[in-house]
Amino acid sequence: MNQLFKTPTATAVIIANMVGTGxxxxxxxxLLEIQSPFAILxxxxxxxxxxxCGALCYAELAASLPRSGGEYHFIGRIFHxxxxxxxxxxxxxxxFAAPSALVxxxxxxxxxxxxxxxxxxxxxxxxxxxxxVVHSLRRSSSGRFQTSFTLLKVALILGFCASALxxxxxxESISFAPQSNDVQxxxxxxxxxxxxxxxxAYTGWNAVTYLSSEIENxxxxxxxxxxxxxxxxxxxxxLLNSSFLLLAPMSELAGKVEIGYIAAKAAYGENGxxxxxxxxxxxxxxxxxxxxxxxPRVLQVIGQDYPLFKRLGKTNQQxxxxxxxxxxxxxxxxxxxxxxxxxxxxxxxxxLSLNSVLTVFGLLLLRRREPELARPFxxxxxxxxxxxxxxxxxxxxxxxxxxxxxxVYFSAVLILLGFVFYYLTCAIQKRxxxxx
Length: 436
Hints:
Blueprint: H1 7-18, H2 21-31, H3 37-64, H4 71-78, H5 81-114, H6 120-137, H7 139-167, H8 182-185, H9 189-202, H10 218-247, H11 250-253, H12 259-305, H13 310-313, H14 322-336, H15 341-369, H16 384-403, H17 405-435
Helix pairs in contact: 1-7, 1-10, 1-12, 2-9, 3-9, 3-10, 3-15, 3-16, 4-5, 4-15, 5-6, 5-12, 5-14, 5-15, 5-17, 6-7, 6-12, 6-14, 7-10, 7-12, 9-15, 9-16, 10-12, 12-14, 15-16, 15-17
Subcellular location: Membrane
Keywords: Membrane, Transmembrane, Transmembrane helix
Main location: membrane
């Protein structure tokens, strides 16, 4: 029997998927509109609460409906195969390929900051090629690679925060206590839009559900890894953003993408900033790896369900969907040569949020429609976590729809194309079966 992924690897996939470019870039966009340290940390805490509530919901779904594919499987099973197909379409494009391309490009940009003669796109493509080969060979090597680089990522983040705060010549004289206008600020469009940046940084807490069929004892280990991984990242994000705000003036961070580099420069000087750039590049390796590990499993189950794409469902001698991994890598490579950071961040954040909102709503429907369904893990305090998740997400999405209409139009076009592609696929399959 082929070796299955264990809890440490599953937890590592979650942490690595979550801790990517978002936490090292989005603070600059938030500071353009919000200058309150308390409000900034509150944003990251609310984002963490949303992620934990979502993780509880997905944990029950993954334990009740244990099959790889994530939202593709959940939504298709609860609502309709067409909705599941569109969800898989979104996951394969926006959900994994686009963000992993941005992470790979950020990896290249950090290394190019140290060695200007290097080309960031070439570096990104080389990283993508190496990780594709690793994940296409053996599951054991894939799991060890993911776990090792994730442990390195957590250790480097903790080491950076501790050393930077200790070595910095001066810390900013800011207060994290609430101010008189902070409550008012929470009801503004700026706060709601900033929450989308935060939610994007937390994206990935559901990654292990795409590997359900390859997890050892999934009914126990998936809920455990979801909660452990998400809780760990919430603490890391609060620590990181507190450190960034203490190390560098908000005026220097506002509007900037290279938050980690600016904070490191304030703490260590020019040479230290170069070292930090190299460290951040190392951190991003596990993120690209985790996305290329989870994303192809969506393509795999689509290939298993739709004969037109049966090649995607095939596995090699190690029971690894190598064809799906290669296809995912090719799509990611295309994004690498054409990606634009800020627009794709909002577009991806909005579209993926819609996907997860429908999934959590599906959990409520499933509880009512199939009360006798075996649920090895039942979400505690039902239905409170689901209601909190839906309320906060819909509140934030409504502000995005009002203030970032272009990205919403792009999202609507992508979803429409998914439905068109689904019905064309069904029509072609029907015609082929009639001819046979």
